[in-house]
Amino acid sequence: KAGVTQTPRYLIKTRGQQVTLSCSPISGHRSVSWYQQTPGQGLQFLFEYFSETQRNKGNFPGRFSGRQFSNSRSEMNVSTLELGDSALYLCASSPGTVNYGYTFGSGTRLTVV
Amino acid sequence: GEDVEQSLFLSVREGDSSVINCTYTDSSSTYLYWYKQEPGAGLQLLTYIFSNMDMKQDQRLTVLLNKKDKHLSLRIADTQTGDSAIYFCAGAPNTGFQKLVFGTGTRLLVSP
């Protein structure tokens, strides 16, 4: 079956702009999580959605937001981009009701210039 | 909150066994995972272990869990050059499964 699909793969944005990243989970998976990966901070949890509801949120400013649609696809948005937002953004999906691990997408590489 | 630590680097020869170590602070972590990341790629789930287990074997992979010392290890038998990657351990704190806390990652280099 198809894996987790993230689009786009690469993005270059200017400081102050906003960006929207998309994630399509594995068919049947209802939970989508987002992580930010940077060389300095490593992998950090952003938020998790299950059946269109945000169940958990990490310690990121309000500029980072997300949502999940009825088909479980999820988007995350970053407004007023800063240079420090440059990172690999990873999306992960799971059934949401059992915890046999999350399946990750290949990520979106965001560069803010 | 949860804190997970790993050694940064491990170098082995092809055919040897590799052991990657991880320590965590949250004893309530119910599930513990090992992920592999190759350059330019996402994270690949290798294996996981429940906190009520001491050991799990999956082909070339063996996971050992010492709950008393909060220590997790991943042993890769007969390490191949294709195993060169960054390996992350991760814990799911509390009884929820809503987020993972990752270690800093161990870069494994396998030389021929």
How would you summarize the topology of this molecule?
The complex is a heterodimer of chains A (113) and B (112).
Chain A: E1 5-7, E2 10-13, E3 19-24, E4 31-38, E5 42-50, E6 53-57, E7 64-68, E8 74-78, E9 87-94, E10 103-104, E11 108-112
Chain B: E1 4-6, E2 9-13, E3 18-24, E4 31-37, E5 43-50, E6 55-58, E7 61-66, E8 71-76, E9 85-92, E10 101-102, E11 106-111
Parallel strand pairs in B: 2-11
Antiparallel strand pairs in B: 1-3, 3-8, 4-5, 4-9, 6-7, 7-8, 9-10, 9-11
Low-pLDDT windows of residues of chain B: none
**Oligomer class:** heterodimer
Q: What does the largest sheet of chain A look like?
A: 7 strands, mixed
Helix content percent band of chain A: under 10%
- Radius of gyration of chain A (CA) equals 13 Å
Q: Compute the gyration radius of chain B: what is it?
A: 13 Å
* Poorly predicted tracts of residues of chain A: none
Number of strands of chain B: 11
Biggest sheet overview of chain B: 6 strands, mixed
Structural class category of chain B: mainly beta
Could you characterize what this model shows?
The complex is a heterodimer of chains A (113) and B (112). In chain A, a hairpin with an 8-residue loop joins strand 9 and strand 10 (103-104). Chain A has no helices and eleven strands. In chain A, 0% of the residues lie in helices and 53% in strands. In chain A, the strands form two sheets. In chain A, strands 2, 4, 5, 6, 9, 10 and 11 form a seven-stranded mixed β-sheet that branches. Chain B is 0% helix and 55% strand. Chain B is built from no helices and eleven strands. The chains are: A mainly beta (113), B mainly beta (112). At the A-B interface, strand 4, strand 5, strand 9 and strand 10 of A face strand 4, strand 5, strand 9 and strand 10 of B.
Summarize this structure as a short list of keywords or feature phrases:
heterodimer; A: about 110 residues; mainly beta; seven-stranded mixed sheet; four-stranded antiparallel sheet; 11 strands; about 0% helix; B: about 110 residues; six-stranded mixed sheet; five-stranded antiparallel sheet; globular
